[in-house]
Each structure stands twice: as structure tokens, then as C-alpha cells.
Design a protein that fits this description.
72 residues; alpha+beta; two-stranded parallel ribbon; 2 strands; globular
């Protein structure tokens, strides 16, 4: 999921079998996921704890959340 059309298009070309959503994390899909990966994006969120809670709620019982937080 990314709100950037260019990034979603590139991802779809590389991985046509995967599902990609062109949208913001303001409205997360109401389903459970086995894996959620967040790459260098958390610092853009004004309420990161709330977003992390919403992400956690979308994980399957044995799901994996990968958070990459690029620091300078």
C-alpha cells in the first residue's frame, strides 16, 4: 500500500501476483494480513502510536510486522 501511483506501478510490474493498494494508511483495509512491511515511512505520521495500533489490529494471529525506520 502506498499513495504514490509511481511506486505502486513499479511494484506491480515486479510482482504481478501480489496485491498492491494505491491509498493512504489513513484508511487501512478491514482484513487481516500475514505480513505487513513498513519501510521508512513512520516518521511521516503525526500519531505514530495510533497507526502502530491500527497496523497491529490488522495482523493475523501469527502475522509478522516488519518496521524499517531509516535514521540519519
Amino acid at each position: 500500500m502506498d499513495k504514490g501511483r509511481r511506486f505502486i506501478s513499479a511494484a506491480r510490474e515486479l510482482y504481478p501476483e501480489a496485491e498492491f493498494l494505491e491509498q493512504s494508511w489513513d484508511t487501512l483495509p478491514n482484513e487481516q494480513f500475514d505480513v505487513i512491511i513498513m519501510l521508512s515511512a513512520l516518521h511521516y505520521e503525526k500519531q505514530p502510536r495510533e497507526l502502530m495500533k491500527r497496523i497491529y489490529d490488522r495482523l493475523a494471529p501469527d502475522g509478522l510486522f516488519v518496521l524499517e525506520y531509516g535514521c540519519v
